[in-house]
Amino acid sequence: MADAAATSEDTAVSIAVLANDSDVDGDTLFVSGVGTPAHGSAVTNANGTITYTPAPNYAGPDSVAYTIGDGHGGSATATISVTVTAVNDPPVAADDVATTMEDTAVDVVVLANDTDVDGDTLSLTGVGPAARGTAVVNANGTIHYTPAPNDDAADSFTYTITDGHGATATATVRLTVVAVDDDPVASDDVATTAEDTAVIVAVLSNDHDPDSPVLSLTGVSTPAHGTALINANGTISYTPDANFNGADAFTYTLEDGGGHSATARVSVTVAAVNDSPAALGDAGTTAEDTALSISVLANDTDVDGDSLSISGVGSPGHGSALAHADGTITYMPASNYVGTDSFIYTVSDGHGGTATASVSLTVTPVNDAPVAAADSYTATEDTMLTVAAPGVQSNDADVDGDSLTTVLVQGPTHGTLTLSAAGGFTYTPAPNVSGVDTFTYKVTDGIADSAPVVVTIAVQPVNDVPSAVAKSLIARQNVVLPIVLTGTDADGDALSYQVTTAPAHGTLSGTTPNLLYMPNAGYAGMDSFTFVADDGIANSAPATVQLQVMGASRPPEAEDQSVLLDEDTSIDVTLTAGDPEGDPLTFTIVTPPSHGTLSGVAPNLIYTPDPNYFGDDRFVFRANDGVNDSNDASVELWIFGVNDPPVVSDLAFTVAPDGSVTDQLQAVDPDGDWIFYWVTVDPSFGTVTFDPYTGEFTYVPNPDNPGYDTFTYTVFDWESQSNDGIVTITLDSLPPQSP
């Protein structure tokens, strides 16, 4: 069958001519020949395609015939129609040359020698940076080149042209810059010197001439506040007038040896010479152990009016001195020192000037607070501790030698305390308490108090006699009764037990504290025995276990019951039974349920049926009063069915780009109900049809399918319960096979 193809001018195209050809016998086809097109060439490729190449620069229609064979003598001929679209030919940019004088710009007509085979009008689209100067495009299509200042070296730049149809070309412009003689350049200078001090200024160090490396000074003006002289080495000596400080200036002239000159200005700053400050001595008085702040700068002066600061401070003989940024010095006398002291300090004017003065100090006496020290003592549990005066004061002190009085601040936590003013005390620990206890006190000299301190008392333990715990119990005629002996010990010691008086109407067996009491055969009435507890050191007083032996026990009676519940729902079940003697009962499950599970602790249980189960179920239990089992009773359970939604599966399929997939949507209903299918979210890149009763579907991808698609389906049962499933479609990317 005829084919059509399109290509651009000067561009070959490969045509799969066999793609639309066929053979009724299903034979494999091949290209057996190809004609010659009018405006190009055509060749057959090994893969059954034909490559068409248009003649150079040709644009327009063309055609070529080709013949196919089936390998059994059969052949057919068809024509390929080819459309060759024109493409733009790029312009040709030719290099240019130009000449200009140093420091002189030139406009270069670069388009004059550039051409375009299509006859398109050319224009400039850009110009590259020049290596040494600058190049910019003018509105008239020329390029304005400016050489670098004082530069006479060769230079070049590139430019780009366009034909208006997207094609461009680039060429280079090479420039010759002709040198000219330049004036020297004199730059202004600055200099700084101190009052009454000359300064040498190397004025030529920042001056230059583009054409000559040799410069010389030819003149200098007279400054307003000093003198300026040219030195043989090309420098200028400036001397300020006596005692002058401030700003001054002069000018100088230089020459380059070619008759060209230049003038510049020298600005001079004359700095004033600093005068040292004057520091005067200071005096101060402070109390013992009290800091004193002294404004030492208040009487110090500076003839230049400079702001003064403290730059150093010496060490006093009987204290410490610390300088602050605000110009004060804090003096702190040594602890408890009384008398005279002194130190020196240095002031600075911030400009290198300093002065030193002395500060004389007097320290007056004050009362010192006493110092109390912590104490520790040892006492015995349940025994009073007596400490005679000076007691807690024995290690307390007062630097002034004052008489001290003891004051209680906080009493003990685990005992009682009596504390005398002289420091003696009595301490009685709380009954049966051992360990660490504390109290807090302070001392006073009548004027000042000490800081509170803690007295620690370690109370050593002694053994406490244990106690045996009496009991009253009920026993059954001819039935063994377990008995656990118990006791208490204030020290927490491990206890052992001994029976001291045996029961009169029964016997004890087992190992203490776990005993078994068996009343004598047929006996009913009161009985008892005594026992003691032993902590390994001492025995307790005897305790009595009273025993009331009751007549023979009758078995309890368990009660049947029926329970109703819904499928998949738990329910609380309370087992019930009665006992003629009112004994406490325990319950045992004899036969568990067949279609569910029990949890909880009898008699309060929770029954949970198996998932989705409905119908009847039962379990059997019995009660026990500690002696006798009851009859077996049953709990009948009736589970009513509820509707369950269908269970829906997600699915995944692969389909060819030009194919389709037909399959079955997957769902089951736990109740066996009739189900109904519906597509609720359509695919984005294809179409799907489906049978709502069977779930069969067919998916066909769109031509623009990106390779992945999904749709959602919903399955309903007869009560409109539903669930969703997602179908994922992946396109098979393998190319189709050749015929």
Write the layout of secondary structure elements.
Blueprint: E1 3-8, E2 13-15, E3 30-34, E4 40-44, E5 50-54, E6 60-69, E7 75-85, E8 96-101, E9 106-108, E10 123-127, E11 134-137, E12 143-146, E13 155-162, E14 168-178, E15 189-194, E16 199-201, E17 216-220, E18 226-230, E19 236-240, E20 246-255, E21 261-271, E22 282-287, E23 292-294, E24 309-313, E25 319-323, E26 329-333, E27 339-348, E28 354-364, E29 375-380, E30 385-387, E31 405-410, E32 415-419, E33 425-429, E34 435-444, E35 453-460, E36 467-468, E37 471-476, E38 481-484, E39 487-488, E40 496-501, E41 506-511, E42 514-519, E43 525-534, E44 543-550, E45 557-558, E46 561-566, E47 571-574, E48 577-578, E49 586-591, E50 596-601, E51 604-609, E52 615-624, E53 633-640, E54 647-648, E55 651-655, E56 661-664, E57 667-668, E58 675-681, E59 686-690, E60 696-701, E61 708-717, E62 722-731
Parallel strand pairs: 1-7, 8-14, 15-21, 22-28, 29-35, 37-44, 46-53, 55-62
Antiparallel strand pairs: 2-5, 3-6, 4-5, 6-7, 9-12, 10-13, 11-12, 13-14, 16-19, 17-20, 18-19, 20-21, 23-26, 24-27, 25-26, 27-28, 30-33, 31-34, 32-33, 34-35, 36-39, 38-42, 40-43, 41-42, 43-44, 45-48, 47-51, 49-52, 50-51, 52-53, 54-57, 56-60, 58-61, 59-60, 61-62
Written account of the structure:
- The chain has no helices and 62 strands.
- It is mainly β and about 750 residues long.
- Strands 1-7-6-3 form a four-stranded mixed β-sheet, with no helix packed on it. Strands 8-14-13-10 form a four-stranded mixed β-sheet, with no helix packed on it.
- Mean pLDDT is about 90; it is low at about 735-739.
